[in-house]
Amino acid sequence: MSKLSLQEQMLKAGLVNEKKLKKAKKGSKKSRVQAREAKAAVEESKAAQKERDQALNKQRDEEKLSKEIKAQVKQLITLNTIAHGDGDIKYNFTDGTLVKSLYVTQEVRDQLSKGILSIARLEDSYAVIPTVVAKKIAERDAETVIENDTKEEVIEEDDPYAQYVVPDDLMW
C-alpha cells in the first residue's frame, strides 16, 4: 500500500475539490511567510532594544565614573589642604580670565611662587595644596587645579634680554 498524503486522501474521498486544495496550500504558505516576517520583526526589535540598553548602561557607567572622580578630587583636596591662615599678604592668581586673590602668610606665598604649593578650586572657594597632590588631581580633573607654577623657562638663543632675570614673585 502506497502512502498518500492527507490532502490526496481527502481529495480521493471527495471531501475537498482541487480548488479548495490549492487555496489551502496557498493559505498555509502565506501564513508561513507572515510568521517568518513577524519573527524577523521581533528579532529586529530585540536587537534595537539591546542596543538602547547598552547605550544607557554605558551612559550610567560614565556618570558613575565621573561622580567617583569628583569625589576622589574633593577628598584629595580636603585631606591635603594647607591652612594658609589669616595672612596679611595678598596673593593674586588667575582663574580662567578672572584675577582672584588669597590672603596668605609670607611662608605660604614663597612656597606658592616657587611652585612647592599650588591652588585648587574646591566648590565655591580655593584651597592651597602641595604641588605633588595637584599633579595627581590634574590627572583626574585638569580644570580643578588653578595654578601650578612648575613651568619650565624657555630661553631663546638670540634673546638680547636673556641675561636679565625677571622675578616671578612681584607684588601686584
From TrEMBL:
The protein's name: Nucleoprotein/polynucleotide-associated enzyme
Domain of life: Bacteria
InterPro entries in alphabetical order: DUF2058
Protein species of origin: Vibrio hangzhouensis
A Pfam short name: DUF2058
Chain spans, region Disordered: 19-64
Chain intervals with Basic and acidic residues compositional bias: 34-64
Biased composition (Basic residues): 20-33
